[in-house]
Amino acid sequence: MKRTIAAIFLATYFLSEAALAATPPAETSVPAVMVSETVKSEAKVVAIDRKTRVVTLKSSAGKVFDVTAGDAVQNFAQIKPGDVVVTEFTQALAMKLKKSAGIRVTTEMADAKRAAPGEKPAGVVGREITFVADVIGVDAKTGLVTLKGAKGRVVDLKVQDPQVLAEIKKGDQVEGTYIEALAIVVMPATR
Asked: Which end of the chain is more exposed for a tag (fewer CB within 10 A), N or C?
């Protein structure tokens, strides 16, 4: 079980590190924009309805809420009152300005892992998106860069570094890698 937990959190760590290390082809000396954020939460299992697969959880702030564990949740029978559900969500983005005009593209890969049969439920889901997007707007006052991707989706990105922001102009393109990972682990109750 400890190996499963360690593997899931390592997978989350490596997914976020991969995005930060991802450097699109260097066509310019403009610095890359890199953003990473991880949110972690824990909740204690206070009740389980085995028939409906509803798990009642209590957060560390005292909020009680229900979660329905769908059929995809393996090893449901292993969950016991007092267990702790740990959730960790990581997002990372690495982006570099591309001075040449080209075709907007987006590619996506996804992967998932589960705990072995008989262990407490656990899993990690990851997704990596690489893209080339057009810069359709730059607001120097707010630090927002508006991007339009290959599928027509428009996204505002906050750029913290004024030096990077000064180099980005409407009509430029950016290349980037966006990675997100979600890990959920049920830990046995502490005695």
From this structure: C
